[in-house]
Amino acid sequence: MPTVTPARSSACCPPARPSLSLRIVQRFALWRQRRQLAQLDATQLDDIGISAEEARTEASRGLWHAPDHWHR
Questions:
Q1: Is 28 inside any structural domain?
Q2: What is the tally of structural domains in the chain?
Q3: Residue burial 17-37, b: 16+ Cβ < 10 Å; e: rest
Q4: What is the pTM of this model?
Q5: Do 63 and 31 contact (CB within 8 A), yes or no?
Q6: How confident is the model over 5-48, as pLDDT tens digits?
């Protein structure tokens, strides 16, 4: 009879933190997306389901503002 190995839970080990170069690339990609968001008109914003105020708030964030899940 084959031996069954129990599955390892991903909750036991935190994910590895991305390298510095990857984090820098992610920050610039996010900054670029925010700049593009600022260029959308009301119809385009409505299509993606956010208000003009939400778009302005997000687009005004600086390069150093990363999503909360990046800090975990």
A1: yes
A2: 1
A3: eeeeeeeeeebeebbeebeeb
A4: 0.59
A5: yes
A6: 555 555 677 677 778 898 889 888 988 998 999 999 999 999 99
